[in-house]
UniProtKB/TrEMBL annotation:
Lineage: Eukaryota, Metamonada, Parabasalia, Trichomonadida, Trichomonadidae
Annotated GO CC locations: recycling endosome membrane; trans-Golgi network membrane
Record's protein name: Secretory carrier membrane protein
Biological source species: Trichomonas vaginalis (strain ATCC PRA-98 / G3)
Coiled coil start-end: none
A Pfam family this chain is assigned to: SCAMP
Membrane association type: Multi-pass membrane protein
Major localisation: membrane
């Protein structure tokens, strides 16, 4: 009889030893993106930044109220410049993250003082240039107006304007006012740096004419004046771009169009209410006169 294949069969032959049984491959954990966590961190940092700015502004207002109670003076008393205080200026009232704008604005105004003083001196020296420059008297008059009128106005419209905007909760119109004034100053300084005959400055064109006609000393003054005016123009131009970028990144700047429409609507309503109130007062006065 042949061998039976079932004689050597065992149902436990296929059972492996637990010690030698291969372990299942670990299932990789599902990959989670850190994008949401990064966005949350950025949002938290922005929120903390806004809180710090708000806290700084509240502290400034508390200090102002305390000074008003002690001195009876509404508003902060003048403290700048130190040798003859004319205006109030305290960089500590500005949030730390915004002080760079104020410092750059005040630095730009100091550069403007130097540039316009050099320009005035160069224009006065044109009296010794003969016929090399047309109408030196006009340049002297204009440069005098620039130094003693434009420079003081620029302190209020650019340097201190940036300081006032950055230390309070700004509005769209406040930002636009500062940006317009800074842009006008930048354009004005650029024109002076070119040095047209009618510009009232010893800029590039006037400086070249002086060198071509052999007036080396006044020409060197023209180089210094042109460089100072160009540096002032570049400083104000960079400040305009920096403030514009910051403004567009704020909540007010992100909704600029809507904010402008809302502000205009409020002003129109206020004007109409004021006009209506005046009409009512006039009618009441007329009625009283008739009686």
């Amino acid at each position: 009889m042949g061998d039976n294949p079932l004689d050597n069969y065992s149902p436990f032959d296929d059972v492996q030893d637990p010690e030698t049984k291969p372990k299942p491959a670990p299932v990789p954990a599902p990959s989670t993106s850190n994008t949401q966590e990064d966005e949350d961190d950025i949002a938290i940092r922005e929120y903390e930044k806004r809180l710090n700015i708000l806290e700084s502004r509240i502290n400034a207002q508390v200090t102002q109220l305390a000074v008003a109670q002690e001195t009876g003076f509404v508003g902060n008393p003048p403290n700048w410049p130190a040798f003859y205080p004319l205006v109030h200026f305290d960089i500590e009232e500005v949030p730390p993250g915004l002080r760079s704008f104020v410092n750059e604005a005040m630095f730009g105004w100091c550069l403007m003082c130097i540039a316009f003083a050099l320009n005035w001196l160069s224009c006065v020296c044109l009296l010794n240039a003969g016929d090399s420059v047309g109408s030196p008297g006009t340049k002297i008059i204009l440069s005098t107006l620039y130094l003693f009128v434009v420079v003081p106005l620029s302190l209020d419209l650019t340097g201190l304007a940036v300081y006032r905007v950055m230390k309070i909760e700004p509005s769209t119109f406040a930002f636009l006012k500062v940006l317009i004034c800074l842009s006008a100053a930048t354009l004005f300084e650029f024109i002076l740096a070119i040095g047209l005959d009618s510009s009232g400055s010893v800029g590039l064109i006037t400086m070249l004419n002086l060198f071509f006609n052999g007036h080396w000393f006044i020409g060197i003054l023209g180089i210094l004046t042109t460089a100072a005016l160009g540096l002032t123009c570049a400083n104000h131009g960079r400040l305009v771009l920096g403030i514009w970028k910051y403004y567009r990144g704020t909540e007010v700047g992100a909704n600029m169009e809507n904010d402008i429409k809302k502000s205009l609507a409020v002003k129109v309503v206020e004007a109409l209410n004021k006009s209506r109130s005046n009409d009512n007062n006039n009618n009441n006065n007329n009625n009283n006169n008739q009686h």
